[in-house]
Amino acid sequence: MSELNSIAIKILKNGKGILAADESTGTMTKRLDSVSVPSTPKNRLLFRETLFSSSSMKDYIGGVILFDETIKQTTSKKKTIPELISEMGSIPGIKVDTGAKILASSPSEKITEGLDGLRERLKEYYKLGAKFTKWRGVYSITKNYPSKISIHSNAHALARYSALVQECNMVPIVEPEVLMDGDHSAKECSIATSQVIEKCFEELIAHKVNLSGIILKPNMILAGNKSKNKISSEEVAKLTLKCLKSTVPTEVPGIAFLSGGQSEIEATENLNLINKHNSTNFIMSYSYGRALQQSTLKHWSKDINDIEGTQRIFNHRAKMNSLAAQGKWSKDLEI
Fold it and tell me: Are residues 144 and 189 in contact, defined by beta-carbon separation less than 8 angstroms?
């Protein structure tokens, strides 16, 4: 077993998952604005330190994806954020892409940037304590999209990123997200997602990436958020598993789903059913942002110094998703 494979499995095994706390300053400002909390470096740090020092980090959170600002911050107890996360038994990670920009030859689509200077940034993040990284490609579904150029360009970028990350002895999270924005059907989502994932692995293999040392972070197969033809959670699970069985090489140790705009309960219920039906050797877990933090953020905003109460809400949500990652969750367990 390689070191990278060991890290990937440690992050996801035994019902653990990933806390995606890698919101950019702009995105985090929107989140804090929505609950009427000023977005200052101090407040952003306070919220994240509250989560990272919660008891659930030991039992349910195998890894935390950080943003550039956060990985360089020092806690109230004079520890660095990566030191705090490591002491809590979790593994620090870092978002390394610089965002999705307009794709030059297809202006209605996006290409993720950040490859320039990436090798040097990776060395810096490794020294700061990061053991894994994240890069997100985004794809839209319409009558004409995702286009071949979008699928190919983002897959190529994800593969180049992954090769550089493994060169620096870190595990790359490969995140090709087919967005749920739109009125498309679940079938259209399945077709697009299959095309996207197939091309990603074609490029990863071409770039000699060690597939046993990555984590795939895909979307679940869902109807668009404006679709009139929603499907049940049972159908979400079955279609998602069918898609991944046919597109993901068996060497990949684990899959950590993004929540992609689902509510907290939806994201937990769908993950639970995926694991109930999972007959593959893949670990199927979570890499959630809003679906782990939304109710916690709302509670915290009422009194940002209520550390214990905020952690209680976060611990519950983390436990629910850990149970779902083992197919052991039920609605009866929700508060």
Answer: no
Give the pLDDT confidence of 245-297 residue by residue, as tens digits: 999 999 999 999 999 999 999 999 999 999 999 999 999 999 999 999 999 99
Length, in residues, of the chain = 335
Q: Cα–chain-centroid distance for residue 170?
A: 16
Catalytic residue among 23, 109, 175, 264: 175
Whether 175 is catalytic is: yes
Residue 229 buriedness (CB in 10 A; 0-12 / 13-18 / 19+): exposed
**Catalytic one of 95, 110, 134, 217:** 217
Cα separation, 261 vs 159, in Å, equals 26
**118 — phi, psi (to 5°)?**
-65, -40
Identity of the amino acid at 118? L
Q: Reply yes or no on whether 120 is catalytic.
A: no
- Helix (H) / strand (E) element for 4: namely helix 3-12
Question: What are the pLDDT digits (tens) for 3-13?
Answer: 999 999 999 99
Domains of the chain: 3-333 (3.20.20.70)
Radius of gyration of the chain (CA): 19
What are the tens digits of pLDDT across the range 48-96? 999 999 999 999 999 999 999 999 999 999 999 999 999 999 999 999 9
Tell me the pLDDT of the chain averaged across its residues.
Answer: 97
Model pTM score: 0.97
Scored b (16 or more CB within 10 A) or e, 127-162 reads ebbbbbbbbbbbbbbbeebbbeebbebbbbbbbbbb
